[in-house]
Amino acid sequence: MIRKVRQHLSQNESLIFERSSPGKIGYQLPDLDVPAVDAAAALGAASVRAEIEGFPEVSEVEVIRHFTRLSTWNYAIDLGMYPLGSCTMKYNPRINEAVARIEGLAWAHPYQPESLSQGAMEVIGRLEAALCEITGLDAVTLQPAAGAHGELTGILLVRAALEARGNPRKKILVPDSAHGTNPATAGIAGYSVQNVASNDQGMIDIEHLAGLVDDDVAALMVTNPNTLGVFESNIAQAAEILHSKGAMIYMDGANMNALVGVARPGDFGVDVMHINLHKTFSTPHGGGGPGGGPVAVAKHLEPYLPVPRLKRMKDALAWDFDRPGSIGKVKAFYGNFGVMVRALAYILAHGGPGLRNATVDAVLNANYIRHKLRDFFDLPYDRPNMHEVVFSDDRQAAKGVRTGDIAKRLIDYGFHPYTVSFPLIVHGALMIEPTETESKDELDLFIDAMISIAKEVDEQPETLKNAPHMTRTRRVDEVTAARKPILRWK
Ligand SMILES: *Cc1c(COP(=O)(O)O)cnc(C)c1O
After folding, report:
1. What is the largest CA-CA distance in the chain?
2. For residue 151, which atom of ligand 1 is closest to its CA?
3. Whose CA is nearest to atom 14 of ligand 1?
4. CATH of 94-348 among 1.10.10.60, 1.10.3720.10, 2.20.28.120, 3.40.640.10
5. What is the band of 4 on the pLDDT scale with cuts at 50, 70, 90?
6. Single pTM value for the model
7. Which CATH number fits domain 360-483: 3.50.50.60, 3.90.1150.10, 1.10.760.10, 3.30.70.2470?
8. What are the φ/ψ torsions at residue 135 (nearest 5 degrees)?
9. What is the pLDDT of residues 38-80, one digit of tens each?
10. Measuring from each residue's beta carbon to the nearest atom of ligand 1, which residues come in under 6 Å?
């Protein structure tokens, strides 16, 4: 049952600082063929440093081997499944990378004149149009750098529109299942946060919502499908309640992997939303690299979008900075261009029917996992889910084993852990999102691993307490690591 552990030779690795040997260098320069200049005299003594204290002195091959060996210790989406819920860790087709490296796109400079940037601007224009079609909304800005940044941009748009009406209002409503970035965004945008309760089906309690919406409410921020993987089937009604009081509805679109090609937020009343290009539209993520958080809006919010806006002239594209209502810039230039290229390549490679298929497969895969694991793990919201499924550790907790222990043991079976202890409304949550890119074979391996772990909990729960057992680094003290991180070598 256990997946064969992939074994290969991999050396132990010391810190690069520990390999340092005085005088070693990793480069060779030819003799000077111009007169030497004294750097301190030319640049000023303050701009020149004699040496960098503690800088490792190593050869080229030592540097290369050090980092290459470390890279083989990492788990990666190119090695296997990443069941992290809410993150949409799908495989990223290599064609996107090839397109992003096309010379004219990879080397485009934001200060190039418009006349020499028409191709890059066309990429931006086509991606905006595709995202309008996908979301059912009227205009898109690609400037924000990631989802949380898109949220802030979106709520600033709401604020600007309400201010233009004479009153920015005071409160943002956020369901209790929300991602932490939602209340954080509301706070940073100057709003206070009020929680909306979920009902026993894991959806917004519409009566509770109706009672909360008054003239002080600026917007409801809602993730749909929500973080339980449940589609908010009352979303249109929620939008009506908000609109009737002059408030708006912001949709956190991090879970668009469950909707693309099937349902459009603009059609169910959403005023403004963000999309995570690095989740739904296949840009590698997880290592802190560049992302993309486009914001899509209904017509009434368009005047407030960040500058500049792309404008289609008669026979060229141009940047329009003359937008008096705009909230201003939210990012240098136009956003993370390489991510946009990947997203457009992904969208065009799939086409409409292909995108829809991806969504349907993502939902099918998550439901397959729910069905196969429901006899082994507690399922607090037991109904067909969308792209992710949330179990709780209720049954295992009776044996003293918690969701974090199960996640650590999963590493021994060759998988990245699922999302642990989120969403907060499920006690001891195991949140699993397989995505459409996993085959049935891979899903079955994952399911076998989870079932095998559930049996271990019954038969020998102590195995779980200090898992993982097969990794190079054993369980670390995460609390100490977070509270007292050691960020310097000495
Ligand atoms: C990932 C995520 C975010 C934040 O997006 P980033 O791109 O990481 O900033 C917000 N809400 C939900 C539901 C998410 O899953």
Report:
1. 81
2. 10
3. 254
4. 3.40.640.10
5. low
6. 0.91
7. 3.90.1150.10
8. -90, -15
9. 999 999 999 998 888 888 999 999 999 999 988 888 888 988 9
10. 86, 146-148, 179, 181, 223, 227, 252, 254, 276, 291, 293
